[in-house]
Amino acid sequence: SELPGSARSKQRILGLQQTTRCRFARIRVSWSDAVCRPHSNRHRRTARGACRRLFKALSYGCVPMPVLVINCGSTSIKAAVVEPDTGRRLAELKVERIGSPEATATFNDKTPTPCPSSCEEALSTCLPQLLRELPADALITSVGHRVVHGGSQFRSPTLVDDNVIAVLEGMTDLAPLHNPANVSGIRAARELLHNVPHVVVF
After folding, report:
1. For residue 158, how many C-alpha atoms fall within 13 Å in the half-sphere facing its CB?
2. Could you say which of 73, 77, 122, 178 would form a disulfide bridge with 148 (CB–CB 3.0 to 4.6 Å)?
3. How far apart are CA 100 and CA 183, in angstroms?
């Protein structure tokens, strides 16, 4: 039998959501291939085509495209998953007393729980739990990292690769309390979310 108008509309939206999620998954694969093989024209064309199709679908506003932002300090970590178009926070993480046996993690202002005391271990443990707090259809599209000091080489948002990390490690003297923590956070997040772009902001 013929579906009512409202039911047909809902069915079209659900179909678009599913298609968009599939296309986004293909973009993640294409992005990984392009990073691993940057001189491959085929992978660049695949990524560009997938991006065009995805953003056309996103113009209908069917699928949220959240960004994970991370700020690793000398004694604390703050992270949040944010919708760029609205600024709404979908999930939050606060880790306090890094470097101390009393380190704790708090998710969405709930009761603090014990966590590893080092920055990298804390993120490796807590980020998966933070992502589990997200709605089922929320897919992380990119990760932003705050870095205290980029020296004279980095003065604007920069796409992260192994070379960028190596250069930042060489700038420890410029911010000895913060840059090492920043780099540790980048390493942990890239290990967990290796199929999306990571960007450092200064």
Report:
1. 20
2. 178
3. 19
